[in-house]
Design brief:
alpha/beta; Rossmann fold; 3 domains; seven-stranded antiparallel β-sheet; 19 strands; elongated
Length: 462
């Protein structure tokens, strides 16, 4: 069938959306960018859905108007309703004009929908929370590295990465073949990696006396009601516990004639807290390193001998950032494998305290410059109160119908037809939508300039 796009007619009843009643014979599908022109205005439109009318077999297109193409560039604030407009595919020059006008400068890949142009994000719109999702094998972590490289190289936004699988510990290195302006900028950036016990690395530590009363209680698994006597002992020992590490306080607690204080000492000893390598001792705690505002600080959470220790670090960092929120110092908080820290099913006091602080930052942190980027392969395992606060979406291959249905519900700004294509994405392909994208777009990610810290284990072959 011949391409009849030159004869298409469109209408808009509200100046925000458009419809093409008969698009039969055209190649336009969801994700296609079009120029919709009336006698006085030219609009950039995005096809969101293509459907077949069962009565007459005609294909109809529905989409949104992204803004007006004007002499000075691009006006995203829309226009007026119209009854009749011509339609033609958007050209490369128009896309470049829109990117320049909107400030889309972070080049992360190549668009998969025509016209084939570099895919770019708006750096200044990372001042909204971002939800990054893709199942195992989708290339999620690798692709996240591409975006972090761009942010670190081309902005002054400090990035703090919670890295449970050591995937970003080489973010300060460059591949041997890395070149170009972004590589040159990365070489100049201050990227610090804190690790639990890796020789030659700055240690990843927390300081017990610096924790809040609530955090100390969470570490000791004390409930203010169920364990009211021991909790009350902490309250009255606040000055002592704010000056010394647990090992320095323990002898006095165990030797106390007060049975409650002795019980508290036994709790510390029985939990093995003195053997935790997370305590700072003579080392600097992570909060002090982060406060120096390096371009990026990677916290390698996965190397501790017990799970609670990485929760101690996470809670101390998140609490410190929240405590300093009135300083309004912008920080991007990247949490990889976010389902481990943000699940509604968490039950231990430490895990719940971490999750609750993340939920508070999601709800209130934006105005203080605390912005989240949450990456997960299990979106249904992330607390709904956190997901609902995200204004940016990066979706890679996801085959779970339950997860896709949830994403379509939460992220209404991402066309449902594009979300539905996720099960057929190849590795490294993604849908980006929300404030940080000039328009919802399908793309193939660029190659990374830095090595990925973790990688798949290969099947042994003969």
């Amino acid at each position: 069938m011949a391409d009849r796009s030159s004869s298409l007619r469109a209408r808009s009843d509200d100046g925000r959306s458009f419809a093409i009643p008969d698009a039969s014979g055209t190649p336009f599908i969801a994700g296609t960018l079009l120029i919709v022109a009336t006698a006085g205005e030219r609009h950039l439109g995005l096809v969101e859905d293509r459907e077949v009318d069962d009565d007459d077999g005609r294909d109809a297109l529905h989409g949104r108007l992204l803004g007006r193409i004007v002499d000075t560039g691009f006006d995203p604030h829309g226009g007026w309703p119209f009854a009749d407009a011509t339609v033609e595919p958007a050209d490369a020059e128009t896309i470049d004009l829109v990117h320049a006008a909107m400030g889309a400068t972070l080049e992360i890949g190549v668009n998969l929908s025509p016209p084939i142009r570099p895919a770019r994000l708006l750096a200044h719109r990372f001042n909204r929370h971002t939800f990054w999702v893709g199942q195992s094998g989708s290339g999620k972590t690798y692709a996240l590295g591409v975006v972090l490289e761009q942010l670190i190289a081309h902005t002054s936004l400090p990035v703090v990465v919670f890295d449970p699988n050591s995937d970003f510990v080489r973010l300060g290195e460059l591949n041997p073949d890395a070149d170009g302006p972004t590589a040159d900028l990365l070489r100049q950036r201050d990227i610090r990696v804190l690790r639990p016990s890796t020789p030659g690395s700055e240690p990843l530590r927390a300081r017990f006396p610096s924790l809040s009363l609530e955090a100390k209680a969470a570490v000791l698994r004390l409930d203010p009601v169920a364990d009211r006597e021991e909790f009350n002992a902490i309250v009255h020992l606040s000055d002592t516990l704010s000056a010394d590490e647990p090992g320095q306080v323990l002898p006095a607690l165990l030797g106390s004639s007060d049975p409650v204080r002795r019980a508290l000492g036994l709790r510390i000893e029985n939990m093995g807290l003195l053997n935790w390598e997370v305590w700072a001792g003579h080392d600097r705690e992570a909060t002090l390193v982060i406060d120096e505002r390096a371009d990026a600080t990677v916290l390698d959470l996965g190397g501790f001998s017990t799970p609670d220790q990485h929760l101690v670090v996470a809670l101390s960092v998140l609490d410190d950032l929240w405590e300093r929120r009135e300083e309004r110092r912008p920080t991007l908080i990247v949490i990889d494998e976010a389902h481990n820290l943000c699940s509604p099913a968490l039950s231990s006091p430490l895990a719940v305290a971490v999750r609750d602080r993340i939920e508070q930052i999601a709800a209130e942190g934006r105005k203080y410059g605390l912005w989240l980027l949450l990456s997960t392969q299990r979106p249904s395992k992330v607390h709904p109160g956190i997901v609902s606060q995200c204004d940016n979406l990066a979706l890679m291959k996801m085959s779970s119908p339950v997860d896709l249905a949830g994403l379509a519900e939460y992220f209404g700004y991402a066309p449902a037809a594009l979300i539905a294509r996720s099960p057929w994405f190849r590795q490294g392909e993604a849908l980006f939508a929300g404030g940080f994208a000039p328009a919802p777009m399908l793309l193939a990610m660029n190659r990374r300039l830095t090595p990925e810290g973790g990688s798949d284990v290969r099947v042994p072959l003969r």
